[in-house]
What we know:
Blueprint: H1 2-17, E1 36-39, E2 42-47, E3 54-56, E4 70-72, E5 77-80, E6 94-96, E7 101-104, E8 118-120, E9 125-128, E10 142-144, E11 149-152, E12 165-167, E13 172-176, E14 193-195, H2 204-207, H3 216-219, H4 221-265, H5 270-287, H6 304-314, H7 321-326, E15 330-331, H8 341-346, E16 348-355, E17 358-364, E18 370-376, H9 383-394, E19 404-409, E20 414-419, H10 426-431, H11 443-462, E21 477-479, E22 485-487, H12 503-506, H13 521-537, H14 553-562, H15 566-569, H16 581-594, H17 605-621
Bound molecules: adenosine-5'-triphosphate.
Protein name: Protein kinase domain-containing protein
Pfam families: LRR_1, LRR_4, LRRNT_2, Pkinase
Keywords: ATP-binding, Leucine-rich repeat, Membrane, Nucleotide-binding, Phosphoprotein, Receptor, Repeat, Signal, Transmembrane, Transmembrane helix
Amino acid sequence: xxxxxxxxxxxxxxxxxxxxxxxxxxxxxxxxxAGVQCESNRVTALRLPGVALSGDLPNGILxxxxxxxxxxxxxxxxxxxxxxxxxxCTNMRNLYLQGNKFSGQIPEVLFSLPDLVRLNLASNNFxxxxxxxLNNLTRLRTxxxxxxxxxGSIPAxxxxxxxxxxxxxxxxxxxxxxxxxxxxxxxSFLGTSLCGKPLKSCPEDINLPPAEPxxxxxxxGNNGTENKxxxxxxxxxxxxxxxGSVLGxxxxxxxxxxxxxxxxxxxxSRSMDIATIKQPxxxxxAEKPAPEAENGGVSNGYSVAAAAAAAMTGSGKGGGAAEAxxxxxxxxxxxxxxFDLEDLLRAxxxxxxxxxxxxxxxxxxxxxxxxxxxxxxxxxxSAKEFKEKIEAVGAMDxxxxxxxRAYYYSIDEKLLVYDYMPMGSLSALLHGNKxxxxxxxxxxxxxxxxxxxxxxxxxxxSRGPMVSHGNIxxxxxxxxxxxxxxxxxFGLAHLVGPSTTPNRVAGYRAPEVTDPRKVSQKADVYSFGxxxxxxxxxKAPTHALLNEEGVDLPRWVQSxxxxxxxxxxxxxxxxxxxxxxxxxxxxxxxxIDCAAQYPNNRPSMSEVRIQIEEIIHTSGQKGQFLQAPxxxxxxxxxxxx
Length: 641
Ligand SMILES: Nc1ncnc2c1ncn2[C@@H]1O[C@H](COP(=O)(O)OP(=O)(O)OP(=O)(O)O)[C@@H](O)[C@H]1O
């Protein structure tokens, strides 16, 4: 009954809740407690997302909530195994445990919850194999297992008749994808070694059972001899392939030695370098996946030259030195022409990350200048239109923008050259390193970032009513050496085709924007609002896991604010400083206003900038704000992360 439900909730709070569950225990009924929902005097739903629950869930608590249909403990810090007494909650339909640190095998207790419809175990430390007994869950519509340590293959007979949502990305899974799951798109299987539809087809021999004499062979004599024949044949084929490869390899080595000798004898010409040496790198480059944008960029030693050389030699018109020289970097305004295309081609480069519009590289020129080069893909406007639009981008000049210095345009290759921002992106800063040694981002830093970004976007909007950024998100908010904010990537949305993957920007995109090219200033304001909420909550809006039945960051924030959990919504690093909570709430409200459903209800970027200035101004007037002990006085401190 309700009394035992109440006792169970209090036991849960005592075990994992700490100070974060501000339930009023003077109230006899728990039904009005935040996150608790009742029907017919029993607790039927418990939703405690992102409230810093931590520790192991003990056995003997949740099992008392026998009428529970929804349990959401997502985005907490719960550890250990899922308690086995959950089996007593036989009415359970929705179980959201994503974003915790649960470990061990996928718990057997789940298989005894036959009514489960939504099961989300993503972003935990679950290990072991995906058990076939999951098939017991015949009503399952959602199964999210991504970002765990699951191993082995997916059982071939795994089948859920009603499954609508499925994801096993980023696990150490291998083998072939079962037929019943082949209708899902590649995004359900990213970061695994799985094969077969919708991914690349499996190497054929993987599916061939080992031909063991005395088993299948015996049942049918004919088959047996056929198998043996096949075996012999393939043996001969293998020998042929090996000999062929060795000969081929020797031939190539001989050719390379010959070529090297020749080039050494000749006076070396740079264009030859590009054509002969860089070309093979191009292929290497093409196959190597770029590291994730957030991980700070790992040096791969690939050369930008490889990319650009591909463009020049790949155009089919002979490529040669004359043509390469004819193509020039076009510089903007009074940007000093301290380097030319050849310098860029010779620069050593590393991949910074792959984005919507292409891949970004850090290139270190021989003279020491460091630039960021963006290699655009899917540009589908005419050369004239490209030049016009890019000239407009290059003409933008403001302290809060990353300057576009130059561009290169050919049929096959479009390069944009920006100033390199050594401190990386806000995205990396917020979500990069959560471990020890990270210096917390306090209110002072976060509000300054908000203001800098607002100024940059406001400037872009001031260039004309039709001018917008089009792709505001935390990976496009970059930081200089002295941690000043620079907005990047503006104006590119109009250059690319509709095929451009919408997923990456999905969490930021305004509801009315159905085609990523049809951006507007009001849509920018929406994205900016999401950015503010990201800054304050510390939660990445693109995180697939906010996606509890399609909840995005603005709606998640609103659901929490509605339940009067204001202080729980903020990033833990911000909750340290109660003296500015009021201002944090104001900025949160501004974020929510910006992310209004209807474009006309959103403020203009100038209004947004003014409001942020006011909020920061009042914060600054509060005595202890600048002197609080854990405030960061020296910006360099947080380079230790
Ligand atoms: N000028 C720059 N200086 C330093 N890092 C940069 C620069 N431009 C981009 N980056 C970083 O390189 C990575 C890839 O950037 P890119 O803009 O190509 O993709 P993105 O921001 O992830 O997505 P999108 O293409 O949608 O903007 C990101 O981590 C970004 O922060």
